[in-house]
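Re: your question from the hallway

Yes, I did run it. Sequences:
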Amino acid sequence: MSVQERKERERAERERLIVATARELAEQQGWDAVTTRQLAQRIEYSQPVLYSHFRGKREIIGAVALEGAAELAVAVRAATAAASGPRAKVTALAHAYLDFAKDNPAVYDAIFQLDAGLAFAHEDTPEPLKDAFAALLECLGQVAGDGVHPGLLTEVFWAALHGVATLSRAGRVPPEFAEQRVELLVDRLAMV
Amino acid sequence: MSVQERKERERAERERLIVATARELAEQQGWDAVTTRQLAQRIEYSQPVLYSHFRGKREIIGAVALEGAAELAVAVRAATAAASGPRAKVTALAHAYLDFAKDNPAVYDAIFQLDAGLAFAHEDTPEPLKDAFAALLECLGQVAGDGVHPGLLTEVFWAALHGVATLSRAGRVPPEFAEQRVELLVDRLAMV
DNA sequence: ACCCGATCCTAGCACCGCTAGACAACGGAG
DNA sequence: CTCCGTTGTCTAGCGGTGCTAGGATCGGGT
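Structure:
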């Protein structure tokens, strides 16, 4: 059955190629430029090949989103682990989150902005998404303060970060006071 | 010149019809259903007529966005004016904002989510957008606290509201604790 | 009454996501 | 070694999108 195994390996490899190419193209030229024709040409296959791996374009975006969510969780955990003291940890988390959004705008859009057919806040939420939320919760749950549910504070803090991320990237808020905004968020929302 | 005036009036009337129809269709069936063909059919004109009023679809979305921003400003001002005391005013503002987002999802998307080619945070920002921000500033500027720039707090509070609005509408956060989230936001971000 | 400009529509372009059906390549059976 | 059947891939095309060129038609000014 070595033949079949080889084919499966090649197939998995090609699937990774599709996702990586979609991501790369989206970061370079925006998601509008990620058409099935363009994508097929870049991976040097014809369009229908895409549909033998994914049900449609949405599912490709979804794959990029899951990959990105996993990376976001890693980035957040690394940042909080490197900082010492609750306040520094929360500040590091905020920066890690906002930096991820700034450095990977297309991926961030795939996760949160575009409808990639992802379920959230249910038991059938994909693992990477739950894990990304868990990464936030691990840090923020410790600074919720008395009488405040850790999950609730995490949701609100996350929402605030998400708001800052999207509004600043869309130019809806001036970029020069980014640092002060983070400070204000940390000072007031977290009880440290 | 009465003839020319009548024509101008009819033209302005038709422009309003286009915007109103686009908005209605978007709220009913989502922006995806707002195609130039569908829109043209609803106003009982052919497609090219749309392009004699607007440069393209983006500009139509932009018109809906501006209309919505003006309404949002009105709603926020009405809510804060009706409440007495700083804390009640801020809470009312938050509810007015989130209710607007919930009740007019398509319009809210036009303002903040879709790229309608609108400039923000510049001097050439359209008046309704500046005014909507001013409406937030009028209330939140009074609860910034010592040493915090009113504009900065307004931006952060606005971002938090925006985050809550988008994440809850996309089902990325459970709906049952909406009230508690608002309370937490008001309690911590505003100095009241 | 005629002309001419404004106004509107038909038809079409290039692109999109997606799919049916033809075709080739290749492992396994006789 | 040959033939068959499956598996995989491609070409071609469908119905849709935003947008526009060019012709017809209507109506006010002379």
